[in-house]
Amino acid sequence: xxxxxxxxxEAVMQILMLAVFxxxxxxxxxxxxxxxxxxxxSLFTESDLELPTDGLDALIDENVAFARDLMDDSDLLIAxxxxxxxxxxxxxxxxxxxxxxxxxxxxDDFHPAEDHLLNQAITIWFD
Length: 127
Prior knowledge:
globular, mainly alpha
């Protein structure tokens, strides 16, 4: 797995991709919500990575590929845990959790895997 800095924009993007892919279906509404959310969340990240001036598509495409590879990983639960643990900032964690909830609910199809991912994030960040 690629080395990603804690509380970075890339860490946030990977976590939100987990929310998009949790039900193993990528819906346009989820990606649109992610695309709308990332610029705001980027203000709270600790990252050298900047949003591309020509849009988020390259960054999203890169992380879609990451998430697709992760879905095929036999150690998905361990990888998910490690990815969620990259958020350690107590101000950033609730913002990311809220974004995850919005992505999970935007398609009006709240899948049990999305619920599990949200509960896993709550346990890691707030317990």
